[in-house]
Amino acid sequence: MTISVIIADDHKIFREGLRALLTQENDLSIIGEADNGASAVDLALSLLPDVALLDISMPNLSGVEATRRIVANTTSTKVIILSMHIEKEYVTEALRAGAKGFIAKTCSSTELVNAIRDVVAGQPYLSSTISSALVGLIATPQEEISTTSNGLSHRELQVLRLLAGGSCTKEVAAQLNLSTKTVETYRLNLMKKLKITSMANLVRYAVREGIVDVA
Description:
215 residues, alpha/beta, Rossmann fold, Arc Repressor Mutant, subunit A, 11 helices
């Protein structure tokens, strides 16, 4: 059996490296590449590969949202997130979106190939380097990862409340024990999810919904 794979990452040199690596395996076939999340969804729905390898941070559409759309529209494609971001929040969001695997970009080629084969065989795969994130995910109370009435996760609500309250990205990161890159990703995802195009409108939304009080 040959496993068909598509690769989505906004760095061409990384895609080329993955292609060269995976095509050395007799049972793997790379049938398409995408450089952004929206193209990854289109590619997955048109080619219906066995596996979609997605980066989590991509232009146009994040890897998490791309996963959600792929999973919602096909049952034949299994998604594996391949990312440098291995914080619990990223792992949680990816798994909730329907990803069957989450692999750190620092993994070995052997681990990546094994992950692809395991996921196709019906076994979820989590990179050994993010085992601590898995422990945290299992231990997280259900109410922490559920969505609020406005469709935001509790972590997204925390970030929105702090940003709208006047905290800068660095301050939010310090208060929530996150990286500044993670906070920035949350901000961008919040704006996309809420269809808001500016920080000023994001603040107005938070005030209107009672997420922050008007000083």
